[in-house]
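hey can u check if this looks right to u? its 281 residues, i copy pasted from the old doc so theres a chance i mangled smth
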Amino acid sequence: MKSIDSRALKILIAYSPIYPEETSQEDFAYAKKHGLMFDLRRMSHDAIVAWAIDEFAASRKSEIVRSFFIGLGLNEAYLRSAISAYAVMTNFPQHKYTTTEQNSDFCAICGMMRDKNINLSFLNKCRWTGSLVGRDPSVLAFYLQQGNKMSIDKTKLMANAEKNGVYKFIQILELIASSLGDEKPSTLYKKIKKIPSLKMSTNEARYLLDALGYCGILQTSKHVGFIYKYTGHLSPSKSRSSDWGYPVDFWTGMDGVNFDALDYWFSDYPEIMNWKSIQPT
């Protein structure tokens, strides 16, 4: 895996989409040279949807999962980000720009405008934290594109990181499986953050739970993950003030771990399948 230039990463993390002028042209050019910042791009809805579908078709689920575990193993949130985009794209409908009489400014299916300026540098900054910043097709396309461009080598270091990530994930599963019935994401993420080996920030722990929701691992019988059903931009939320992703927003400890989703994502990992096999049904 290509090493990340520390100066370029520092420039990316400091970047503000509200005050882009605070990033000097020299710094922007430096980070762009190292593949972390990008020029603004204007694209049509239909072109963006086609881009997202093409990137999903080019993705390999096995590599997405491997990157997820290596990200856990190395405590690098950006390596985990593609799994959220892949999950949301699983049942994403191929469509043209579609409007309703009530609202002709946004697509009725995905919520995107007919034409859009895409700030890829901002998307990459969000990607670095493991956050899926909305489910706009431009976000999904970019996250998958960056995941597809990464070449994670097969060295012993990466193999050990992957194995370590699997071990950490089982710790997370054990914590979730032992949750009381009234556990909610707002309390669960604080417990996950305390797992010594994870070394996650508060936001990274929250974004991880969002990802497990997108993947269908944390869901409810009524509000399911995206590997089962595409839910558009008007997805429900548990309360007006909630800022959790859908569907983990509705999850409680009573819902537990969805074993079917574990099979979908991790059937190639005997450690996780063995953990699943000894859990009460």
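The chain has three domains: 1-37, 40-149, 156-277.
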